[in-house]
Design brief:
Blueprint lengths: L1 H12 L10 H9 L6 E2 L4 E2 L4 E2 L3 H9 L11 H22 L6 H10 L11 H12 L2
Antiparallel strand pairs: 1-2, 2-3
Length: about 140
């Protein structure tokens, strides 16, 4: 699993700017303790990256014409594909639409708390801790 994630990350990091600098293996550790079968957020988020069925998954399906089911997010390759799409395409769109610059910090905040959190003067404690954990992981 780590090899696949690292391989996808290194492959994608080449030309994506800030989005390509996001380390998905860190996101997986924070979100699911790297468990493929993780279910969270009261049954609304699934897999390694805890992709939310009504958030990123719904956007992915609508914008790409796909029909990915939540149960498919237990697949390492499927969830990595959607997470990469989110960091490369969707989150930057949403961040820019709110008038913010796309940075590593903005991407991580948007992933954890939603883009509306970028407008807050103070981040929720859980998001502050998420950022600290992301930066501390090696």
């Amino acid at each position: 699993m780590k090899i696949l994630l690292l391989g996808i990350f290194l492959f994608m990091a080449g030309g994506l700017g800030v989005a390509g600098q996001i380390d998905l293996s860190k996101i997986a550790v924070i979100e699911s303790n790297s468990r493929l079968n993780a279910i969270g957020d009261n049954g609304q988020s699934f897999g390694l990256y805890q992709i939310h069925r009504r958030g990123i998954l719904a956007d992915f399906n609508q914008m790409t014409g796909a029909d990915v089911k939540p149960s498919e997010l237990f697949s390492e390759s499927k969830s990595a594909h959607i997470a990469l799409w989110a960091f490369e395409e969707r989150l930057p769109q949403l961040i820019r639409a709110r008038g913010h610059k796309v940075t590593e910090r903005a991407l991580i905040i948007a992933w954890n708390c939603g883009t509306s959190c970028l407008d807050r003067k103070a981040l929720p404690k859980t998001t502050v801790n998420y950022l600290k954990k992301y930066r501390s992981l090696k």
